[in-house]
Amino acid sequence: MKAEKEASAIVDVPELTAIAEIFRKSATLWSGIAKSALPDSRPILKKIRELMIEKNKYFEAGEPDSLDKMLEINKEEEELLRVVEEDLKNPKEILIPMRTRIFECLEIEKEAFQALNDIIF
């Protein structure tokens, strides 16, 4: 929140603070969409999500052994993906809720971009 206030003050556009809040809502929705793609209700998909998060932490840490750890995680993910393939023959129960959330996000982002457009033009 502090960065948005500083940015809106620097460019002397206080409306940017409100627009940043709209984009924060969008980011929260996108996080939910990502989680729903690998839901807790499917243990293998949940495990894949957890491995991806773990791998990202190693990537961000950038430690000397991070690459080796990430490669190990890749192997585990590949094994799980082979197993889960049969489970995903009918993906509608995952995709339909995702679609709804994506449309919610679309509406929020339209609002944000319209607000930006109103400021610019």
Notes on the protein architecture:
- The chain has helices spanning 2-10, 15-37, 43-61, 66-84, 92-120.
- The chain has 121 residues and is mostly helical.
- The chain has one domain (2-120).
- Helix 3 (43-61) packs antiparallel against helix 4 (66-84).
- The protein is flat.
What's the helix count? 5
- Compute the number of strand runs: 0
Please state the average pLDDT score: 88
Gross morphology is: flat
Instruction: Report the end-to-end length measured between terminal Cα atoms.
Output: 25 Å
Overall structural domain count: 1
Radius of gyration: 19 Å
Order of helices and strands: HHHHH
Query: Which parts are unreliable, with pLDDT below 50 for 5 consecutive residues or more?
Result: none
Q: Helical percent range?
A: over 70%
The portion of residues forming beta strands comes to under 5%
What class do helices, strands and sheet pairing give? mainly alpha
Biggest sheet character: none
